[in-house]
Amino acid sequence: MSSISMISPNILQVDAGRETDRIVARIRELVFSQLKRKGAVVGVSGGIDSSVVAHLCARALGKERVVALFTPEADSSPDSLRLGRMVADNLGIRSFTEDISPILKGARCYERRDAAIRTMVPEYGEGYKCKIVLPNLVDADRYAIFSIVVQSPNGETIKVRLSLDAYLGIVAATNCKQRARKIIEYYYSDLYQYAVAGTPNRLEYDQGFFVKNGDGAADFKPIAHLYKTQVYQLAAYLGVPEEIQRRPSTTDTYSLEQSQEEFYFAIPLAKMDLCLYGKNNNITAADLAPAVGMDEKQVQRVYAMIESKRLVARYLRSAPLLIEEVQGIQ
Amino acid sequence: MFTEKSVGQHVREFIVENFLFNQERTFTDDDSFLGEGIVDSTGVLQLVTFLEETYGITVEDEDLTPENMDSVNSVAAFLSRKMNSVAGSVPLDQKTVPGGQL
Questions:
Q1: Nearest to A302, CA basis, from A270, A286, A279, A281
Q2: Model confidence at A167: pLDDT above 70
Q3: Which of A24, A272, B29, B41 is the most buried (most CB within 10 A)?
């Protein structure tokens, strides 16, 4: 086990220039040599991760070989499109805006989601907003069971614990958003013979914070090894717009603003980074606690949470399983 | 016709059928569902639905702790406390529930 003297909140500091050079060289090799594609498609959400990936791809492949896609839908924040455009404009890369709301309406995703919500909140309808949230998982031993928060048109909010059927119904319907986006990304991938860049950071990739065959689908994932705080370091180095660097992480999936903490990670991402690092490096909860500003018991709960999410994420990351190896295919 | 089952047996059957898919796997009545990778958080929600629908109880938010839900024995003890508190002095083993007499 590591000693307490070794653990500093700055432990995740990287040499951003050197790391950028390393990733850029690797992107060139992956896209041109291994995937044999002519460039990259990046879904740019206006968040920090996709902005960094767009910058890295432009630097690696050349700005003329990168396409940025904006895929807003009915529940998206207008900021996402505005900030995504800012990234593409600053980089001078081609961009396309594809509203995916008609796809989602055609597949009855909003209708199915709203029907699931109404099993818990019968009055939910036109003009209402919603999000799903986790309880506080750090200060007591609790299960990660979601509640729905609904805001009526006159601003009143109610919070109800979700039943199994309602939870599954809401998640299944909203996951269509990430999958619809991937349909469009692969349209442009086919059109230009480009590879699709995935944008998960290490927390998301490790903990399964993605939709299988949705944002989890990609041809390469250039920042999946970087902790979130390291992504911010690269963002500063690469010159990602300040407003994006300051923007709180959001899922931009539900009509009410929803942070990634309340939806998935339960604690601020900088602390989650340190806890994941601690767990990966066999640092005891007692040793890590001072660096992360939590007590030992809280860190123990986060460690347990990391482990249980990894179990779920195994399915999300798994490629299709075969009965036996297929001869002739490497 | 109802058959006599202990609450523990009833819960165990539910776990084996819904989470182990009746495959061969042994676990004791004290084994941690989460620790053994048998039931995750979504599974706990399914367990809660089973308990509410089968035993006619309401599981409150504050009941959703590993202390109450993380093993066959802890679920059985939780149910016993819950049903006794709902029904006053009627002990659990004198109640009849769908699927069998407790």
A1: A279
A2: yes
A3: A272
Q: Which amino acid is at A86?
A: M
Give the residue carrying structure tokens 């903990």.
Answer: A207
For the beta carbon of residue B26, count every other beta carbon within 10 angstroms: 6
In chain B, domain spans: 7-87
Contact A11, A274 (CB under 8 A): yes
Instruction: Give chain A's domains with CATH numbers.
Output: 12-106+168-317 (3.40.50.620), 111-167 (3.30.890)
Q: What is the CA radius of gyration of chain B?
A: 13
Whole-angstrom distance, CA of residue A90 vs CA of residue A74: 26
pLDDT tens digits for A25-65?
A: 999 999 999 999 999 999 999 999 999 999 999 999 999 99
* Residue A123 CA from chain centroid, whole number: 31
Bridge pairing between strands A195-197 and A40-43: parallel
CA distance A320 to A322: 7
Q: Which of A174, A164, A154, A56 is nearest to A113 (CA)?
A: A174
Please report the pLDDT score of residue A6 as a whole number.
60
Q: Which residues of B touch A168 (CB under 8 A)?
A: 42
Cβ distance A197 to A160 under 8 Å? no
Q: In this structure, how many other beta carbons lie within 10 angstroms of the beta carbon of residue A259? A: 16
pTM of structure: 0.89
- CATH number for the region B7-87 comes to 1.10.1200.10
ipTM of the assembly?
0.77
Question: Are A201 and A224 a contacting pair, CB within 8 Å?
Answer: yes
Phi, psi of A180 (to 5 degrees): -65, -40
Q: Give contacts of B65 with chain A, Cβ < 8 Å.
A: 140-143
Q: Which of A141, A164, A311 sits opposite B45 (nearest CB)?
A: A164
Closest residue in A to B60 (Cα) is A161
Q: Which two tokens stand for residue A310?
A: 């990894």
